[in-house]
Amino acid sequence: MRNSKYYSNLDLKKTTSSNRLAGMWRMTEGFRLTYLAAIASLALAALAKTLTYLIVRNLVDKGLAESATTPIYYFALAFLGLAVFEASFTFVAGKMAARTSEGIVLRLRNYLYDHLQRLPFTYHDHAQTGELIQRATSDVDAVRRFFADQGVQLGRISLLFGINFITLLLLNAKLAVQSVMFIPLVLVISIVFFKKIEELYGAYQDQDGHLSAALQENLSGVRVVKAFARQDYEIAKFEGENYQKYQLGKKLLLGHALYWPVTDVICGAQMLLSFYLGARMAIAGEITVGTYLAFASLVIWLIWPIRNLGRLIAQSSTGLVSYRRVADLIDEKQEVLDKGISVSHSGVKGHVVFNNVGFAYNPESPALQQVSFEAKPGEMVALMGSTGSGKTSLVNLLPRFYECTGGQITLDDIDLKDYAKHALRREIGIVEQEPFLFSRNIAENISYGVDRQVSQQEIEAAAQAAAIHNVIQTFPEGYKTMVGEKGVTLSGGQKQRIAIARTLLKDPRILILDDSTSSVDTETEMQIQSALDKLMQGRTTFVIAHRVQTVMKADKIVVLKDGRIAQMGTHSQLLEQPGLYRDIYNIQNKV
Amino acid sequence: MYFEEEEFSTQFNGQTIRRIGRLLIPHWKWVVGFVSMIAAVALLDSIFTYISKLIIDEGIVAQNIPRLNQLVGIYFSLIFVSAAAVFGFIYLTGILGERIRYEMRRDLFNHLQELSFSYFDKTPVGWIMSRVTSDTERIAELITWRLLDITWGVMSIGSSVIFMMLINWKLALVVALIVPVIVIVAIQFKKRIIVQFRLVRKMNSKVTGAYNENITGVRVVKALVREDRNMQEFDELATSMYKAGYRAAWLSALFLPAVQIIAALAMGAVIWYGGLQARTGEMTIGGIQAFISYLVFMLWPIQELSRAFAEMQQAIASAERTFSLQDAKADVVDRPHALDPGTIRGDIRFENVDFYYEKGKPVLKNFNLHIEQGETIALVGPTGAGKSTIVNLLCRFYEPKEGRIRIGGLDYTGLTLHAIQSRVGIVLQTPHLFSGTIRENLRYGRLDATDSEIEIAAKLAHAHEFIVETDKGYDSEVGEGGNLLSVGQKQLVSLARAVLANPDLFIMDEATSSVDTVTEALIQQGMDELMRNRTSLIIAHRLSTIKRADRILVIEGGGISEAGTHAELIRQRGHYYNLYTNQFRQELGRQYAVA
Q1: For B211, which of A136, A245, A591 is closest by C-beta distance?
Q2: Extents of the domains making up chain A
Q3: d(CA A288, nearest CA chain B) in Å
Q4: In this structure, are B370 and B396 located in the same domain?
Q5: More confident of the two residues A91 and B191
Q6: How far is A565 from chain B (nearest CA, A)?
Q7: How far apart, in whole angstroms, are the C-alpha atoms of residue A347 and residue B402?
Q8: B216 and B298: one domain?
Q9: Chain B environment of A208 (Cβ under 8 Å)
Q10: Residue A430: which of B210, B223, B586 has the nearest Cβ?
């Protein structure tokens, strides 16, 4: 894959694993040394902190005695030096962790972007945009936080605990053991609590989603709300969601309001117990006053961070859940775009033959059956039929958005399946009824379909041919006007003509048109019609037709019914036989 | 979808701050409650450290076990007092925060329901969404948790300094001089970090936008073989997000160490000076220990304070925008003593009506129209001629700038909005459905409709046929905005919805433009019955739809250029005749040509 250079040639597909931790680990490939350096820096910083308190011990035991010979500023400097050392390595750890996590997600973002545009239509048909975006953004961010925050915090707390506990053991083993007596209790409470809190928080967040959805719907449907004077109904509906969120928020808070004081008491009591026992030992002369001081400080760093472990574990588990969701997306199969015959641009004539073609989205209900017809180079084929008759399915087979499940389609006597999809799609232009434009400027939208640098003249020529140039000129920034929310809102007819210009520039041999111009007024309709006529010249064209006037020009009319060809012929031929075509024609002409 | 991040104004606005403060007035008891709780917690923390000092000096060094027991006893009982205060402040602050969020959202939503079309025309949905969701969040945070943080920070630092004064006032003075320096440095630093994170969020919304476009436009991307170039463009975006994110991350990783180093200078001074004094007995061991503890733990309030101050600016900007939404006035409102006559049947008159959306660009000028009760009127004419404006005025989504509209002889500004809008059935070209089932959407037309009434309406609008074909019939979900249905199907549902409302006045604005020809013909038969004896207004481009109207009005340049029945207008050979023949000339011409 050419684009793989954007994700360091690492095929993320190979990193996914059903074991989430293993998958996460594999994802760190290329950053492991950096991450290791981060953890080592954390250890050094924790060590420096511990040493700081040992200096206090020495200061008290040896430095403060009147007989002491070591100058005090030695201690002060050592203290300062260690503080700088600790601070520096804390920073290095943060920086290395940032490099790791940001690097991993850069690769991941690029991979997902490319992956999404290479997933087949069969995937996109069932996937929801919001859901996909969530995986590519918030789930990816949760993975980032796993490496950047939770991983680092967990490392920090464990290292602090480990190093301080060992130091305490060395200072006085009995006291050390007594100082951690209640810690398992705190740990258990913390893990249980945060598991519960995570659930409550999840519910709270979900409710937030419901609330936003309710608001969004109300705002985008504000005209309907007003048209039916349903304000009171809407207020009651929103109040329901809003109140629910309030209640969930209160529940969540009550959890926190109980957890923190309870653990405050346990940790406080544990700390005080250590102080007391240490003080008794110091009075009894079992330990020095300096040891007591170091001990009292280290105990603080041993006990309090434990309270956060539960939170970190709970947060890490959401990071792992997010990883799973991202990995599931990565595991989806892409469509192969560049395997097969690549034809030169001038080489395609545009001779299309459908030979007994069948197609089904799912095996039980076929969308097309036994479709056979021929389109000679430059011919225009009109496809008619009611909604669901198979017109759209039929044209979707041409660029191989879907693969036919029976029969064969040939282009210039070669099976479509033998062409590389990319090569094939370069030869096909599509103009939809309500075309999708991108939020870029108009010039960029028109030249969106061509790989080369396009001059302004070429763009304007295409726009002129598509009868949209004059409209564009009336916009404040002309061709540089942005399309969409940040710029102009285009009408359906204007969008369609920009899409026609876009297709003209692409200059394909085969054309697929959705000719439904019902939502524009007569004058615009005529402009679009003449633009389309220009576009169709010399190209094999498939038109999804709704109106007789379009159909009459066609070299061949294919009338579809329930996925089969019901009638086929020219306008005059079909008018002479009783059938669907004549019925439609009569209704439309009854005016 | 609207993904852009907001920019923030950089000035503090005194008026805004006062207005934020006023939000707290109704809840002042809660505020006093949590502020005193957190103050108690901060004070107790300092006391704990002081007791630890006493344990060392008066217990250990003095070898006084009864004193030690006494001190430990006091410490132990204070732990419970502190825990109770912790419970108190979390509970009070949290609940108050949730309550304020809830109330602000409620008030904003209710206010939004009253705002007029003109407001929604010029305000993007995304903008309003952010005001109601994230901005209320930020304001509530500011006046609860941030206020708490600030109280805690000030109290912690203050009480620490006071206790340090008690221990050794000279040394405490040194500390007291350094603390403000640290706080100022910390705030400035934090502000920079926040700016960087704002940049990350901005990049993030761009990345989200890029994903959104690539997914919703995937069909076009594939058809135009854009994959490689898109990837290249996205990589640039993702790389700049990487750079911004990396910079934000390491800047914030630098924050605490940097503050720590400044604080370490103070601690070095304490050890050096305190140690010297200890040798001469002026300073106790416990005193040095207490100083170090106070300094180490002072880093947290400093961090919280700097965060609170740095974020404050953002919250105030949020408040400014939210207040601007709150202050937006509806321009179509019920007049005092407006009435509800119980029906809006009767003649409708537009009398010398002027209207514009933007000053200087008149849409209707001196417009006059008399619609008799029960008449079916069709409006035709080019896009932008003013057809939809007539509908908007008639429904009183907007009001005339000059002139008046009478319904049943009464100036309609004398009626309540509800009296008019609850009796109008309107079907728009771009129909909007709400997520939920088809049945729920239909029932929106009349909330107390029975299932069989719903079905009758659906049959009349010929929506029934496709509804029963769907998986769960009337209980099928329509998706967000009705997206699981085709435009034509949505039009049928919204038509049935309006039919169900059984309105006095029926309006169809391009209501069946995306419905196929056969269905449309069927609908027309049903509509004939519905429109009998009911004033109806139809806008359409398909002339077949409007041919049967009692009167056809050709609207051009904000006025009526022709009026009459189909036959009359054809005879006139005017604009209507041209429109009519234009639409069919081509196909008729070709028909003869092929035949």
Answers
A1: A136
A2: 1-172+315-335, 173-286, 349-427+509-521+532-591, 435-507
A3: 10
A4: yes
A5: A91
A6: 19
A7: 66
A8: yes
A9: 133
A10: B223
Instruction: Measure CB to CB from residue B434 to each of A75, A221, A521 and give the nearest one.
Output: A221
Q: Do A124 and B218 touch (CB under 8 A)?
A: yes
Are the Cβ atoms of A272 and B72 closer than 8 angstroms?
yes
pLDDT digits 0-9 by tens, A202-211: 899 889 888 9
For the domain made up of A435-507, give the CATH fold.
Rossmann fold (3.40.50)
Our CA-based measurement puts residue A1 at a distance from the nearest CA of chain B, in whole angstroms, of: 10
CB contact under 8 Å between A246 and B99, yes or no, is: yes
- Does the interface predicted TM-score (ipTM) exceed 0.90? no
By residue range, what is the domain housing residue B168? 14-327
DSSP string, B449-518: --HHHHHHHHHHTT-HHHHHHSTTGGG-B--GGGTTS-HHHHHHHHHHHHHHT--SEEEEESTTTTS-HH
Q: How many domains does chain B have?
A: 2
- Architecture in CATH of A1-172+315-335: Up-down Bundle (1.20)
At the top level of CATH, the class of A349-427+509-521+532-591 is alpha beta
Burial of A295-306, coded b for 16+ CB within 10 Å and e otherwise, reads: bbbbbbbbbbbb
Which one of A80, A222, A252 has the shortest CB-CB distance to B265?
A: A80
Is residue B306 domain-resident? yes
Sheet containing A406-411: order of strands: A365-375, A352-362, A406-411, A414-415
Give kind and range of the element (H or E) at residue A410: strand A406-411
Q: Are residues B320 and B391 in the same domain?
A: no
The whole-model pTM stands at 0.83
pLDDT tens digits along B106-164: 999 999 998 988 888 888 888 898 899 889 999 999 999 999 999 999 999 999 999 99
| Residue B191: predicted pLDDT | 87
**Which residues of chain B are within 8 Å of residue A402 when distances are taken between CB atoms?**
none
Q: Which of A96, A217, A514, A560 to mutate to test the interface with B (most CBs of B within 10 A)?
A: A217
Which of B302, B327, B352 finishes a domain? Answer: B327
